[in-house]
Design goal:
Layout: E1 2-6, H1 13-24, E2 28-30, H2 31-41, H3 44-54, H4 61-72, E3 81-84, H5 90-102, E4 109-114, H6 117-131, H7 138-162, E5 165-169, H8 174-186
Parallel strand pairs: 1-3, 1-4, 2-3, 4-5
Length: 187
């Protein structure tokens, strides 16, 4: 199983990604983890990315794409993988399709966890209160949801055209959502 997972902040992507990775015995590959590994190990790509981040700039697609490409050549991805946080743009999606096409390993599914915005806003406000995240105000959370929707819609449209988009309702208990996701992916 080769797939990407998408969903707005608070949808439970991290939790569900762990469930999926275990169920299909594939690595959960988070772009955040790739960044931290490259920067921590002082790789050439890590040093390049760190330069952008230290200046408060967006790391260019070319650097992100190369980090993902390097990670996908590791042997633990031979039986599949779950990408989390990539692709985020249409250009990245096209680059991922190119990479995987060259390796004759196309994506099997693009999973989008859908949620009720109002319930997620309340969930995130509660989490912010419990974890002391003063910067997670309702206005900031709603803005993050808007940005997610605007950035992801073009990707979900393309995945839908490719016939690999699977949307699953992310509302309910962790177990209920996990059951829905696994059933949809095995379908």
């Amino acid at each position: 199983m080769r797939l990407v997972i998408m969903g707005p902040p608070g949808a439970g992507k991290g939790t569900q990604a762990a469930v999926i990775a275990e169920a299909f015995a594939i690595p959960h590959i988070s772009t955040g983890a790739i960044f931290r590994a490259n920067v921590g190990e002082g790789t050439e790509l890590g040093r390049e990315a760190k330069g952008y981040m230290d200046r408060g700039e967006y790391v260019p697609d070319s650097v992100v794409n190369n980090m993902v490409a390097d990670r996908l050549t590791e042997s633990d991805t031979d039986g599949g993988f779950l990408l989390d946080g990539y692709p985020r743009t249409v250009d990245q999606l096209h680059e991922l399709n190119r990479m995987l096409g060259e390796a004759d390993r196309p994506l099997d599914r693009a999973l989008e966890i859908t949620v009720n915005t109002e319930e997620v806003v309340q969930r995130l406000l509660k989490r912010a209160e419990i974890e002391g995240r003063a910067d997670d105000t309702e206005e900031v959370i709603r803005r993050r949801m808007e940005v997610y929707t605007a950035e992801t819609e073009p990707l979900t449209s393309l995945y839908s055209e490719q016939g690999i988009l699977v949307r699953v309702d992310g509302m309910g208990s962790i177990e209920e959502v996990s059951e829905r996701i696994l059933a949809a992916l095995r379908d």
